[in-house]
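From the thread on structure requests for the teaching lab: each student submitted one protein with a one-line request. Submission from student K.M.:

"Model RGS domain-containing protein from Amorphotheca resinae ATCC 22711, tokens only."
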Amino acid sequence: MDLEKFFQWLSAILAAIWSFPVSTKKFIEINILEGIVDLIRDSFSMIPSRWAELVAKLLSDIVGFLKSLALYLHRGLIKGKAFSHLVELILPSTVSTAHMSYDDVLNGRTRPPAALPDLMLHLMNVVHAAEGLQFSVWALAYKKRVHSSKHNMRSWSPDNQLEAERRARVVRTAASPIDRSLAAPWEDQEGHARFSALSPDVKEEAARTVQELYDQYNLTSPFTNEHSSSHTTEMQVILATYISPRGSRCVKFSYKRKFALLLALQTTFHPDVFAALKAEADRDLRGAPFESFRQTVVRNANRDRIRFAKALGIMLLYLGILTNVFLLLSNAPRPYRALPSILYILGTSCLICACKGICVLLHNRKRRQLRPWEIFLTEEQYNDQHDPRCYPYGLTVNPKVHNQPWIVEYKKRYFLRRIFDREVCIEDPAILRFHTRLFYSSLVIGVLIAAAISVIWVFAIPSLPRNLLQPRSMDMTA
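Reply posted by the TA:
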């Protein structure tokens, strides 16, 4: 096919695309991109076999990028924000949900600084609403504990047996040596009981709170002192902490959800009775709280380090301009005016990365600075945050801003000390890939900007006359 005819044919099809509906446009754009790549692939049929795999991989990467570009631009044209969509594609602001979602963090499929303890600390110290996540973690751990045991699941299903039979079944379950790990919510398989460390006063207060909760909903409480066990005590503590309005970590569930839970607990302690409440808590966390967490974890430096990086980038740009002015005034040859382009590249890439919360020096070492609230963690708090079994009772939830000691202590630190805070390694591969992509994108943009500025300095600005800067000799003779 003649190359000129091919481009005429392509232009005609692209011009006709805009007369189709929206869904048809998207479909045709992607198919045209695939057709172009297929045409290019056919033209490389004479390539030696050892290069065929490399070329095929390169073309697949190209078509993937072109597909993403077409979808982003198509969305932007509909909303009238094509430029912002293009900028977001080239310089993303956070990790995509395909690589780091809320379910991945909750189920432990991410690594620090995007792990579950990091999300918990972020909700406690930034959002000040960690109750929903703590309840969701407990419900998930409780479900895994039940399903991974050898317990007969039929006895956990809802039934209409008499109350006495249900209580007898709960007592037998708690006394069974096989299922004793199910009875205590914070016990491990070696029998080190965390839940048994709670004082009797706390257990009695939880029982009274649950009784008041059932009275408030005009229901009969299934928890009695004569049939108490570690299993029923667990339910009482959870209800008194997360469900009761008087609870220290009360989660804002709807009235119908709470009523259905209390009604179901009269019959069974099966984990499925908490499924609706867990789904509601997860739905609230997937919105603004988790989006704030995703934007925080991609930053590898604190605010003061970012300010220092921005100042460094601006200083490099100014230094490049001053170097160009010096070369111009010194009547240096024109090719020498392109030397400050190195400063333009470094300054632009450093400034772009700093605007996205990335320090280039930390990225090269694959490290990040500790968050302000992580610096002042005690050893006990550090161990608790890495042990999900401590979440239901071991952590302080929803602290007041003025009661957080790290805020006052961090403000007392000197500016230079905050710039060079302690560092740790970044283990999550998705965050490392995001940093690498952002760094190379900023480097490419820096090269383009430096090339444009260098062309202006080398070709557009004329050289000064040689005798302009020479001192004039004064004629002293009359």
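TA comment: The beta strands are 367-369, 423-425. Residues 429-460 form the longest helix (32 residues).
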